[in-house]
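hey
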């Protein structure tokens, strides 16, 4: 065993989770992760990870995950489901289970809940409502421990399969995109998000970040990004012109509705359903001016152009785009 402080992490096998593990090792944390199956992608020679088999519905596993940990990062969340109740059960219910286990096994560990900017608009979709409900669980059940909530916007970067179709389309020179007219969105590179998470944990432990803080975060670009700016950043990343075509909602809705029917028939959930369109066509996904740089001294390293170029290089280097 190591004398490094233990960082208990849920959702560690996902895109953001794997980036967090890498950053945590670099900052001398000892990660301990909750997994439902063998975490092949998280295991790297020279890195020792404590593995706790189980899930968010297993109180015993949750207790073992958090026992003796210095800090807890709750990343796990459901992003697609066949029924609205499934979002609530996984995202709010899972958060409740984790906090109840932590209250019994480790009532002092710092707790950081990685939510989503979608939680700001819970009326838009079952997913957004479940993320707001998960934040409410943190407020209700965190107890006297130091805790905070971070709301990332859309996250991209090396290892992300969700934004891969966007880069593939840009590489092909033509990108249709679903968005409201004059839509603006905040974005953040995954490396910047995880560095912010670890900075917040340090400050929570030291008492320099006020317990109960709710932080919206972005890449530091005032007012977010519009699609013209994103298309230009994609053009520079792929090295040739990219034509964009904004798809109106009325055109996309029948496709999403048909996909939802197919998903129900097959019993397999998918992200692209009508409820998701309410999020996609919401015009304002701009993070509020973040106090994080002033509070913890954190600064994003990637602007949009550098971030998109870094991501595209990773896709090329790993043969996701040829």
């Amino acid at each position: 065993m190591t004398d490094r402080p233990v960082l208990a992490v849920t959702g560690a096998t996902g895109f953001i989770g794997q980036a967090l593990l890498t950053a945590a090792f670099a900052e001398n944390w000892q990660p301990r992760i909750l997994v439902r199956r063998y975490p092949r992608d998280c295991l790297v020679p020279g890195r020792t990870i404590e593995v706790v088999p189980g899930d968010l519905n297993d109180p015993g596993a949750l207790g073992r995950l958090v026992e003796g940990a210095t800090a807890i990062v709750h990343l796990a969340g459901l992003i697609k489901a066949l029924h609205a109740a499934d979002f609530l059960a996984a995202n709010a219910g899972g958060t409740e289970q984790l906090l109840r286990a932590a209250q019994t096994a480790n009532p002092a560990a710092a707790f950081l809940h990685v939510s989503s900017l979608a939680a700001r608009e819970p009326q838009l979709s079952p997913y957004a409502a479940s993320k707001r409900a998960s934040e409410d669980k943190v407020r209700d059940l965190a107890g006297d421990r130091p805790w905070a909530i971070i709301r990332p916007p859309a996250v991209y970067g090396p290892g992300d399969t969700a934004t891969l179709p966007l880069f593939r389309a840009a590489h092909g020179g033509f990108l249709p995109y679903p968005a409201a007219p004059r839509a603006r969105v905040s974005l953040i590179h995954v490396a910047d998000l995880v560095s912010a998470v670890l900075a917040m944990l340090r400050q929570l432990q030291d008492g320099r970040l006020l317990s109960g803080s709710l932080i919206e975060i972005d890449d530091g670009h005032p007012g977010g990004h519009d699609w013209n700016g994103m298309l230009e950043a994609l053009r520079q990343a792929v090295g040739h012109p990219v034509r964009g075509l904004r798809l109106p909602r009325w055109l996309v809705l029948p496709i999403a509705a048909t996909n939802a029917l197919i998903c129900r028939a097959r019993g397999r959930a998918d992200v692209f359903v009508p409820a998701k369109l309410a999020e996609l066509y919401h015009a304002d996904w701009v993070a509020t001016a973040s106090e994080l740089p002033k509070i913890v001294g954190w600064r994003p390293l990637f602007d949009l152009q550098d971030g998109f170029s870094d991501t595209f290089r990773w896709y090329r280097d790993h043969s996701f785009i040829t």
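The mean pLDDT is 93. Residues 64 and 316 are 40 Å apart (CA to CA).
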